Amino acid sequence: MCALVRLTFLGLTGGTAQRTDYSSLLLPARGVIVDRNGSPLARDFRVYSLWFNPKAMTDGPPLVGEPRQIVAKLQAIFPDLDTAKVTRQLASGQAGYLRRSILPEEANRVHAIGEPALQFPQEASRFYPQGSMAAHVLGFVDSGGQGKVGMEQVLDAHLKSPEGRAQSTALSIDVRVQGALEDELGRGMALSNAKGAAGVVLDVDTGEVLALASLPSFDPNKIERSSTPNIFNRVTNQVYELGSTFKPITVAAALDAGTITSLGRRWPAAPLHVARFTIRDSHAMGSSLNVPETLMHSSNVVTAQIADELGGVRMKKTMESLGMNERPTIELPARGFPIWPSGKWPRLRTMTVSYGHGIAVTPLHLASAYAALVNGGIWRPTTLHKLAPGQVPEGRRVFTASTSARMRQLLRMIVSFGTGRKADAPGFRVGGKTGSAEKPGAGGYRRSSLIATFASAFPMDHPRYVVIAMLDEPQGTPATSFQRTAAWNAAPVISRVVPRIGPLLGIMPDETRDVDISDLKPLVPGEAKE
Fold first, then answer.
1. pLDDT per residue over 315-366, tens digit each?
2. C-alpha dist (Å) from residue 249 to 173, 268, 312
């Protein structure tokens, strides 16, 4: 009879029967996030919660015992229980959570108290098996089931969809590389007593981020138990003046523009007076320097002259082509806007930008720029999605292939003979550049506060990965020979990271290979000094 009534209703109203997909009931509430190799980074699992239901007993008071007595028994199970708060809640008869995510044995002990109003329903909880690792990439899920901050926020709708729940979502991150980067950045922080650190490992040919670390970090498993300190992402959201790491970009732009026609040409290295401003080097470097010596010694004075000949229009255009005038291209919601001087750049601005002052960008901007320096000249947007071969973006050409080849030689020379020697990792052919920049403050730059950065790539005979290591306000300690500059604290991080991640990425050490710098060696009669 009921079926006949239902058929009659559908025939008269044109209604359609709703289809229930029972298989979806077996899926987690939120999809699994994995790294590029399938290792789980975030997943749902069922947990018990402790819930106070004052209406559990239809007759009489909500509790059998006195609130204080019940709380005392609960505290024996949960020593860190906020007894005053829970006592007030029980006395008021207000329904609500007393505890989230309790263990089965804890639920059994609560049951033994014998209070029907103390219930422990099973609920879905988000779990991050790697703990704090890659926390700034992943973000977290709040108590309402909403993704926050990282890829949990970016992928929120997808992870809740039937497709996202049915199959895992792969990020570009490699959990092994991520662990090595975080470990060595943390070690670098400890050795130099720095207040923070940031790092990136980037595939130079695809733009995929294999590791992204901001330290100190936070544990997404413990969001509700703390005020979530350290949630700010230094890699994508904080902008810095990154100092001498910009010098290779300036040289590459000048090579492309034809204002440098010979790497052996010499420029005077004495302090440079521009209007009422004087550009100096950190120490005397001789009367003149050529291009390899300028990069190896890290001369502000000569780099400024190279930029002056290049001109503000071409310098600014190069920086724009590298995306340094806009937020970093990454899926994360926290993306800092660069400090970028608009309009025509005057002569002094062009000079200071050439050695990394006057504009401020994120470490991720720098990683993308170095990828273009060494990969043949192509800039590509960075991504946290694992890309299939056909998904790699075409990118845009910033430098010619010949200029990129030259920069590979020059960056390798900096590590072989210059200020980057402590970044060398035998057999991995590391190239890169130091950068030690004073942080701006009220009334000017603060000499006591440095941002120390090393921007690198390896192996330089066929670059595959860029690795950036940055330390925020390192101090001179015995471990760094009482030096605060990048050559003494950021560069050693690279020398430890690369041998750890190289074999994981299929790059084995080979001391019989290297980028050919034989045509440039005659330009450097002696090795650079620290």
1. 999 999 999 999 999 999 999 999 999 899 999 999 999 999 999 999 999 9
2. 27, 21, 14
Q: Please tell me the number of Cα atoms within 13 Å of 300 on its side-chain side.
A: 22
Cα dihedral sign, 188-190-191-194: positive
Q: Which residues of 393-424 are buried (b: 16+ CB within 10 A; e: fewer)?
A: eebeebbeeebbebbbbbbbbbbbbbbbbbbb
Q: Which amino acid is at 268?
A: P
CA distance 223 to 85: 20
The tens digit of pLDDT for each residue in 248-269 reads 999 999 999 999 999 999 999 9
What residues contact residue 36 under an 8 Å CB cut-off, 6+ apart?
170, 171, 172, 173, 174, 208, 210, 386
Residue 311 φ/ψ region, left for φ over 0, alpha for ψ in the -120 to 50 degree band, beta for the rest: left
Catalytic residue among 244, 368, 436, 456: 244
365 vs 373: CA distance, rounded Å = 13
Query: Is the backbone of residue 358 left (phi > 0), alpha (psi -120 to 50) or beta?
Result: left
321 is catalytic: no
CB-based contact 270:530 (threshold 8 Å): no
Given a contact cutoff of 8 angstroms between Cβ atoms, the answer to whether 261 and 286 are in contact is no
C-alpha count within 13 angstroms, C-beta hemisphere, residue 402: 6
Angle ∠(238,239,243) on CA atoms, nearest 5: 135
Q: Which helix (H) or strand (E) holds 448?
A: strand 444-458
Residue 19, pLDDT above cutoff 90: no
Residue type, 481: S
φ/ψ (deg, to 5) at 129: -65, -20
400: CB partners within 8 A, 6+ apart: 256, 377
Q: CA-to-CA distance for 422 and 405, rounded, in angstroms?
A: 23
Q: Which residues pair with 208 in a beta bridge?
A: 383
Partners of 456 in the beta sheet? Answer: 432, 467
CA distance linking residue 335 with residue 401, whole number of Å: 30
Residue carrying structure tokens 């106070």: 52
Residues in the chain: 530
State how far the alpha carbon of 7 is from the alpha carbons of 2, 16, 20, 111, 178, in Å. 9, 10, 18, 48, 59
Residue matched to tokens 């001369």: 299
Report the candidate in 505, 411, 396 with the shortest Cα–Cα distance to residue 454. 411
Q: In a 3-state reduction of DSSP, which class is residue 204?
A: coil
Per DSSP, the three-state class of 431 is strand
Residue type, 107: A
**pLDDT tens for each residue of 112-166:** 999 899 998 887 789 999 999 999 999 999 878 899 999 999 999 999 999 999 9
The percent of residues above 70 in pLDDT, for the chain, comes to: 92
CA-closest candidate to residue 486, choices 407, 420, 413 = 420
Cα distance between residue 203 and residue 387, in whole Å = 11
Do you find a cis peptide bond into 104, omega within 30 degrees of 0?
A: no
